[in-house]
Amino acid sequence: MADKIKVALVGIGKIAVDQHVPSIAASSDWTLAATVSRSGTVDGVPAYTDIHTMLADRPEIKVVSLCLPPVPRFAYAAACLRAGRHVMLEKPPGATLAEVYALKALARDAGQTLFATWHSRMAKGVQAAKAALAGKTIESGHIDWKENVRQWHPYQDWVFEPGGLGVLDPGVNALSILTEILPTPIHLESATLHTPANRQTPVQADVKFLNGITASFDWLKEGSQIWEQRFSTTDGTTVELLEGGNRCIVDGDEQPLTELGEYPALYALMSLLVRSRTSDVDLSPMVHVSDIMTLAHRKTAPAFEWSS
Ligand code: NAP
Fold first, then answer.
1. Cβ atoms 6, 63 nearer than 8 A
2. What is the pLDDT of residue 44?
3. pTM above 0.90, yes or no
4. Which entry of 6, 14, 62, 91 is annotated as an active-site residue?
5. Which end of the chain is more exposed for a tag (fewer CB within 10 A), N or C?
6. Is 221 an annotated catalytic residue?
């Protein structure tokens, strides 16, 4: 068996602890060789507080996985690529489209792998939905993506700052699935964003694409959380993707699921990309978010505080 690949994890916060650390620990391909975070650490793993120190001290670590929020991420990603490391980006891959194009060019010129991950695309029912829709014409579709920001991003003020995306942070997960499973590209017709009076980014969004597909994104949903997409095609096929894409029903029948969970599947793909020195950077979900920000009507919503 090939040697395990050493990875450094940067930004030891919620998603690093919830998903990246356990997925790396459970993988036979990967070993967590260092962390870089101003305050976060992982038991038993050498911890750095500065990316440049880690890159200089640990030349044997060839891969860096960046779990920071999008705005600070570019400087870290560029430093890693310039230092000859392969880079894995949490979603969304950057604060702007142009900065991700710049990273893509850096990776290409350096012959390094850049992987802009979309964890929701790896949900277990997504490929079944894609297969069911292949070659068909969508008649209508609707996405309900309704979750509680206080549960998933507790006290993370960056989500309400410019570049934090607000409800489009989970919304881009839905769009990453949509852009993966649809047989033809779509584009935006209209959108409405509801932004709290005291914040920079929206808590609710209503979105309409030209191709008969609509979406309702809500970040104030209490109780049961809803991550669902439903489609019908002109030949009468119905496709339901439920539980964030982890359950797929076609014409009323449950479909077989892929084996790996979302983050284990991301690391499995990253190991293939690194070993073949190829990149995977699909910006289409982020293009839709950018278009929503460009075209949307704005409405002011009640002020948002973390303790309701
Ligand atoms: P987080 O916990 O708020 O941030 C992750 C870590 O990044 C923090 O612990 C912090 O570590 C570091 N950081 C924050 N701001 C920084 C800055 N300005 N400069 C340098 N380091 C900074 O966020 P998260 O929830 O893990 O989300 C991180 C990314 O994962 C986001 O892009 C998000 O969309 C994505 N994601 C989140 C979830 C979720 O459920 N929360 C799910 C899937 C994907 P130090 O203070 O120790 O440096």
1. yes
2. 97
3. yes
4. 91
5. N
6. no
Mutate-to-test residue for ligand 1 from 12, 45, 50, 67, highest number of ligand atoms within 8 A of CB: 67
Task: Looking at the structure, tell me whether residues 156 and 92 fall in a common domain.
Answer: no
Tokens of 11: 């930004």
Cα separations (Å) of 148 from 151, 204, 208, 218?
5, 11, 22, 8
Mean pLDDT (whole number) for 144-149: 98
* Ligand 1 atom at shortest distance from the alpha carbon of 165: 34
Over range 150-172, report the average pLDDT: 97
Q: Supply the pLDDT for residue 74.
A: 98
> Do both 127 and 207 map to the same domain?
yes
In whole numbers, what is the pLDDT of the chain averaged over residues?
Answer: 97
Long-range contacts of 37-40 (CB under 8 A, 24+ apart): 37/10, 37/11, 37/12, 37/13, 39/12, 40/11, 40/12, 40/13, 40/16
Q: Domain range spanning residue 297?
A: 121-259+289-301
Structure tokens at 82: 């310039």
Say if residue 159 is in the same domain as residue 293: yes
Pocket lining for ligand 1, CB < 6 angstroms: 11-16, 37-40, 67-70, 72, 90-91, 119, 152-153, 156, 158, 169
